[in-house]
Amino acid sequence: MEVHVVSSTVIPQGLPPTENTKIPLTVFDMLAADMHIAVLHAYMPPMPTNTALKDGLKKAVGLFPTLAGQLVENDDHCRPYISVGDNGGGVLVVETNVGSELLDILPLEPSPELERFHPPIDETQHLLQIQLNRFSCGGLVIGLTAQHRVADGKAMSSFFVAWGKLVRGLQIDSFPVYDQTMLIPRDPPRCDHDHWGIEFQPLPLPPSIPPSTLNSNKIRNMRVHYSWEFISKIKTQMPRKHSTFEVLMGHLWKNITRARGLDPDTLTQIRLSVNGRPRLRPPAPSEYFGNMVINAYPRARVKELTKGSVADAARLVHDAVGRIEDGYIRSLIDFRAINSGDVLVPVTDFEEPFLCPNLEVDSWLGFPFHEVDFGGGGNLCAFASSWVPAEGVVILMPSLPGIGEGGVDVMLTLFQDHARLFREISHSLD
């Protein structure tokens, strides 16, 4: 399958304010991975023209100005910020023609081939990059990459919905919120929790990790589907009520650990992304645009997971998420204020791309994919993350209605031997 680049343009920032605006990165922005995250959305024909999509994108960029800004470090390298309204920046738009029909690549199975449908994520010059891949049948795959320190998944999904509405000529009824007053430190600031070694690496910094002897080619990206019927079966085993996420995550954690064949006394943990917006008191607006994700860390010994029940694993997930509440979030905000003169380095910056025996989990179950509509009559028929060259990553996303039986799709990355064993037991209820 050939992907031919037709054009590459930059949509400039919208009308600049009277003076350059500097939006400082919050402690949550600093915790986000300093990299672009790539996501693909596939639409059946008919779809609007590329011109219509770009016209709507220009309007959307005006409403979400940080996506077209520039990520800047101050001279002391302690206070990074997003520059809006200055020269430079903009959104990169690449247009391609694909010499095949969209049905030829559906469903979007994890593969390095998917990287051809979005701009490169290394050494990027733009915070937001979009690639419009037009297939011979008229179908479209929109490949989007965004700098994670500018916005989390919740924020980016709201941008996508707004872009679709603007292409259809509709008014936006929910505007992004950039006000950071709800994140002001307490007076005086105080740390009620220990954040060194949990969120940030204490100084002095450790030596750089030498290149791993493991080969990223040994990593397999895979997609596993869980129907609502199967998830309901797991829930019948629960002595107490749990969310779909908690139940499915308990099931996955238990079976992934079994597939890895780890020593029974090994400690395994999940780094689990939690949306902090509704957990603040008072809650932050759901429209807050930026990052407001905090990590929860359920932990257990391998023997506890493999010999215990799914209900036990789900309870560990539930309890760890429950500890992320207003007090913890305020403590993290104050931690940044107390250490405002120091270089804060996320602990994740010192990790290899091989997380075994641990996992990193993101849930997209609450994102409004079903609301993304560009008009023209074409329906969203698939969405997926791009190829992930790291082991131990798990992403939960809703299966699209009308495609299959519904439920939850799980994208996960494991070493090839572990992936083969997991595939065999992925639906085991033992």
Q: Any overview of this molecule?
A:
23% of the residues lie in helices and 24% in strands. The chain is built from nine helices and 18 strands. β7 and β8 form a beta hairpin. It starts with a strand and ends in a 5-residue tail after the last helix. The mean pLDDT is 91.
Helix content: 10-25%
Query: CATH topology of the largest domain, what is it called?
Result: Chloramphenicol Acetyltransferase
Broad structural category:
alpha+beta
The CATH class of the largest domain = Alpha Beta
Number of strands: 18
First and last CA, distance:
42 Å
| Helix and strand run | EEHEHEEEEEHEEHHEEEHHHEEEEEH
Chain-averaged pLDDT: 91
- Which architecture of the largest domain would the CATH scheme give at its second level? 2-Layer Sandwich
Work out the strand percent. 15-25%
Query: How many domain modules?
Result: 2
Envelope shape: globular
CATH homology superfamily of the largest domain: Chloramphenicol acetyltransferase-like domain
- The number of helical segments is 9
Given as residue ranges, the uncertain stretches (5+ residues, pLDDT < 50) are none
Radius of gyration, in angstroms, nearest whole number: 22 Å
> What kind of sheet is the major sheet?
7 strands, mixed
